[in-house]
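Hi there,

I know you've been waiting on this one. I reran it after we fixed the sequence typo, so this is the corrected version. Both the input and the resulting structure follow.
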Amino acid sequence: MARNHIIHTSPTGLVTIAGGKWTTYRSMALETVATKQSRQYISACGLEPVHKESQTDGLVLEGGHTWTPTMFIRLVQDFGLESEVAKHLAHTYGDRAFSVAKLASMTGKKVTVGRRLHSEFPYIDAEVRYACREYAGNAVDIIARRLRLAFLNAQACEEALPTIVEIMGEELKWSEEEKKLQYQNAIKFLQTEMGQNVNRVSRETIPIHLTKNEIADYVNRFNSLDTDKKGYISLNDLRRSLKNEGERVSLDQLHSILNDVDVHKCGQVQFPDFIQMMAAIKSGSISHSRFAQLAERAEEDLHSKKISVERSGGGV
């Protein structure tokens, strides 16, 4: 998608800024009011500039006034939050993270406060309460625009949804009927907008034309990630494999890798789905998969660590 923008002045003096993106809004505004070209806009509108220089350059965003890279440590010390949760709050809310943490409930565990909405994500109950007090009015707003959990993992979002709706009900004084309606609307959003009901024909209808040797190879690749023989590959399996390779990736990146093949959006990859993906790659229907590459490397690492019979000092 094009990210450039244009500035146009109509004969009637209407100044229009079109294009661009959210993260370039400052440069767009600066070009409109603080460049040589801006003089024609000012002149066209009959305006007299009060300042010659931009007055918002260096303006600190809300939450950034006392933020520091190590601020999360204070959150851990002052509130007893998990380190991962504290880092998430500091990164998301800046110095307002302390206001969020004050709304956190007790966990009943070693960690004092910060009840997670889902075990695999650092989002906590306090964020829902804080969002409601920042004018969030429905469950879809919470899961899609405040937490954005719907975009990371639709299945995990659905699992967290009852808790989210319950907390919102307390904050916004919802009746049981309203809570039920909010839950249903959010489920519909996940199914229709976040892909839970997307037709998987594009992948599932691809015939599996693999040789016995190829299937055996893919079994080994699958098992090299599923080291504890659960029968599926989870987020923790990916994290462990990447850690063994010396790679550090964020939680969002892990979910992105898993979503390559997690067609059921359940946070797990079953072997049939893995085989279907490999068949799609072989046929050319899928050109690239980070998940498939990771499985291949894990298998290679496993073979490289094996010790020959001669070196082991014994035989069969």
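Quick highlight: The mean pLDDT is 80.

Best,
R. S.
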